[in-house]
Amino acid sequence: MAYGDLPQNGIGDQNRYLFPRGAILNKDLSQVLPVDPTDNLQVREEVAHSWYKYPGGQKALHPWEGVTEPDYTGPKPPYKQLDENGAYTWLKAPRWKGNAMEVGPLARLLVAFVSGRKDVQEVVKEALGRLKLEPAALFSTLGRTAARGLETRLAAQWLMEQYDALIANLKNGDSATADTTKWEPSTWPAEAKGLGFTEAPRGALGHWVQIKNGKIANYQIVVPSTWNASPKDGQGQHGAYEAALIGTPMADPSGRSRSCGPSIRSTRAWRAPRT
Fold first, then answer.
1. I need a labelling partner for 70 at 20 to 30 A (CA). Which of 28, 145, 157, 272 fits?
2. Is the sign of the CA dihedral 223, 194, 177, 168 positive or negative?
3. What span, in angstroms and rounded, lies between the C-alpha atoms of 57 and 222?
4. What ranges in 55-140 are assigned the alpha helix state H?
């Protein structure tokens, strides 16, 4: 999943983002699904396996209504092993329409590729051609590593385009660097909601704020690492990091080889990571 970034006309027209917004489910490279961070039925955080609690036993909340109330129920020192059937982390479990999502360079690249960004498609196809691989091969460690390099190549190209546009604006007498019409808090309504999003190097980053009586009443952040390193949710879906460990051989002091832990050994959970 990607929130999209590098708008070419303010933030109004998502079709002009250099990195488009969208989501891909189940590795289906035939379509990009629309993402709306303001929709309280799309982006929600769960705490079924987190050391937090929600009021009234609620299971999931949109960040605008989010609550961050610690509720540590974990082991006391000396630590031996966490019980992953209960709460086991200080991370919440963000979900998009109930799905565990992966964010980051690969997600941005795939969403842009499937959305039809010609410049992105060109560098991806060139890399795949040199590696003699199909696009599905990008869903791998190789793909995630390649995405970082390909993003850097695109960034260098886009940087020159942005520089040329800046120089052209200056020559035309346009020296504005931001829209400051809503800068002064005195111009804000007494009650309002705000959203700030970007594509940080490690993925989709969102800030949600509620203002009441002219003051911040609630402020919640869902960072890329929370998406990727999230714990299981109430439906047992693993976050991207956890899912990537399933079936990974682990060293055993006894000399035998074994896969990761008993409760995440099943490959059925591999469906969890999406982009």
1. 272
2. positive
3. 21
4. 105-115, 118-131
Q: How far apart are CA 164 and CA 171, in angstroms?
A: 11
More confident residue, 271 or 73: 73
pLDDT at 269 over 50: no
The CB density around residue 69, as the number of other CB atoms within 10 Å, is 10
Helix (H, G, I), strand (E, B) or coil at 168: helix
The b-or-e profile of 72-111 (16+ CB within 10 A means b, else e) is eeeeeeeeeeeebeebbbebbbbbbeebbbbbbbbbbbbb
What is the domain count for the chain?
A: 1
* Structural domain of 182: 1-275
The answer on pLDDT for 218 being more than 60 is: yes
Binned at pLDDT 50, 70 and 90, residue 27 comes out as very high
Mean pLDDT value of segment 148-172: 95
Secondary structure letter of residue 22 according to DSSP: B
Q: pLDDT by residue (tens digit) across 100-111?
A: 999 999 999 999
Give the burial class of 63: count Cβ atoms within 10 A of its Cβ; 0-12 exposed, 13-18 middle, 19 or more buried. buried
- Beta sheet of 192-200, edge-to-edge order: 192-200, 203-212, 215-222
pLDDT of residue 234: 95
Residue type, 239: G
Is the pTM of the predicted complex or chain greater than 0.90?
A: no
- Look over the chain and give the mean of its residue pLDDT values, rounded to a whole number: 89
- Non-local (6+) Cβ contacts of 267 within 8 A are 246, 247
Task: Please report, as a single letter, which amino acid is at residue 152.
Answer: T
**Tokens, residue 243:** 């899912």
Give pLDDT, residue 251. 81
Q: How far apart are CA 182 and CA 204, in angstroms?
A: 25
